[in-house]
Amino acid sequence: MKKVVPDTNVFISGIFWNGYPRKVIDLAREGKIETVITDEIMDEVRDKLINKFHLSVEEVDFFIVDILTYAKISSVSFRVKVIKDDPEDDKFIECAMSCGAKYIVSGDHHLVDLGFYKRIQIMRPQQFLNKISKK
Predict the structure, then answer these.
(1) Which of 3, 59, 75, 91 could form an SS bridge with 55, CB 3.0 to 4.6 Å?
(2) Residue 29 half-sphere exposure, CB side, CA atoms within 13 Å?
(3) In angstroms, rounded to a whole number, what is the distance separating the alpha carbons of residues 96 and 41?
């Protein structure tokens, strides 16, 4: 099974809108991909839902519990400094490296512009869906 680290944009877009990010999340819910996150990623999702989208703590807790029904929490084995323009994005690379994920699915150009980091392919949701549908 493909091990995938979605970024915060994918989770939030999957919560609020139909489209490719939602399709990635649906694959995770259906058990067709293995989704892995860290506490740090979950904290960022929580923070964005509260501070950017102005959801209540109760609403945010509902979404967090939902995410935890299909995503596995990984610990981070080590730190990297890869994304100079947005060091906060390094957490996705750290998660993927720590859990052995082959993919990061992201809507963030800082990550997507890398294309690859070591053995990890970084791509937009539509690219990821196209890639896995060909297999």
Answers:
(1) 59
(2) 13
(3) 12
Q: Strand 103-105 and strand 71-73: pairing?
A: unpaired
Fold exhibited by the domain 2-133? Rossmann fold (3.40.50)
What are 90-132's pLDDT values in tens digits? 999 999 999 999 999 999 999 999 999 999 999 999 999 999 9
Give the pLDDT score at 135. 59
- AA identity, residue 73: I
**How does residue 49 score in pLDDT terms, banded at 50, 70 and 90?**
very high
- The count of residues in the chain is 135
What is the distance between the alpha carbons of residues 15 and 9, in angstroms, rounded to a whole number? Answer: 10
Provide long-range contacts, Cβ within 8 A and 24+ apart, for 73-82: 73/36, 73/37, 73/38, 73/39, 73/42, 74/36, 74/37, 74/38, 74/98, 74/99, 75/38, 76/38, 76/40, 82/114, 82/117
